């Protein structure tokens, strides 16, 4: 598994926690930034991670900002990205199981490091169910993208 990661200044403190977690699990990743606490626009990092996932360069993406909201909005503007904005383990599992989400957005100001890692672990370890009804719904999302993202 290959994971693209990115954050803005609002998620910079949790990124090292994420990197340590991924390295201990032996998961390959690429850090798309930011790399310090200077104020930046989250848009460019969500775009970089989302594009890398949508293009198939990475299997999944993880985005961290202050709340996760801005990152998720931007990521979901990219054709081929299904970004789940999650702050609990159940939602992280369900966004993979039912929605085949390929990007996760979280907020550093919303979750602490312990819960953060539980959410990330649930997201990366849960497979899409492939169940007919969920596959049909994901296919409808793809059709909507094809219609709206020319």
Would you write up a description of this structure?
With about 150 residues, the protein is an alpha/beta fold. Helix content is about 45%, strand content about 15%. The protein has six helices and five strands; from the N terminus they run E-H-E-H-E-H-E-H-E-H-H. It has helices at about 15-25, 40-55, 70-75, 90-95, 115-125, 130-150; strands spanning about 1-5, 30, 60-65, 85, 105. A five-stranded parallel beta sheet has the order 2-1-3-5-4, sandwiched between helices. Strand 4 (about 85), helix 4 (about 90-95) and strand 5 (about 105) form a beta-alpha-beta unit. Helix 4 (about 90-95) packs parallel to helix 5 (about 115-125). The radius of gyration is 14 Å and the shape is globular. The mean pLDDT is about 95.
Structure keywords:
150 residues, alpha/beta, 6 helices, globular
Helix and strand topology:
Blueprint: E1 2-7, H1 15-25, E2 28-31, H2 42-54, E3 60-65, H3 69-75, E4 83-85, H4 89-97, E5 103-107, H5 113-125, H6 132-148
Parallel strand pairs: 1-2, 1-3, 3-5, 4-5
Helix pairs in contact: 2-3, 4-5
Task: Provide a concise account of the structure shown.
The protein is an alpha/beta fold and 150 residues long.
Name the shape in a single word. globular
CA distance, first residue to last residue: 29 Å
Structural class: alpha/beta
Mean pLDDT: 96
Share of helix, binned: 40-55%
What is the string of helix and strand elements?
A: EHEHEHEHEHH
Per DSSP E runs of 2 or more residues, the count of β-strands stands at 5
Strand content: 15-25%
Radius of gyration: 14 Å
Number of helices: 6
């Amino acid at each position: 598994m290959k994971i693209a990661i990115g954050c803005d200044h609002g998620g910079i403190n949790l990124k090292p926690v994420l990197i340590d977690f991924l390295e201990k699990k032996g998961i390959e990743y690429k850090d798309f930034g930011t790399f310090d606490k200077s104020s930046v626009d989250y848009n460019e990092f969500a775009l970089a991670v989302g594009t890398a996932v949508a293009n198939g360069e990475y299997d999944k993406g993880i985005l961290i900002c202050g709340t996760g909201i801005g990152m998720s909005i931007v990521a979901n503007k990219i054709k081929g990205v299904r970004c789940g904005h999650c702050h609990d383990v159940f939602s992280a599992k369900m966004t993979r199981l039912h929605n085949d989400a390929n990007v996760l957005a979280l907020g550093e100001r919303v979750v602490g490091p312990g819960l953060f890692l539980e959410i990330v672990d649930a997201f990366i370890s849960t497979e899409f169910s492939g169940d007919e009804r969920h596959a049909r719904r994901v296919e409808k999302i793809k059709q909507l993208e094809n219609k709206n993202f020319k």
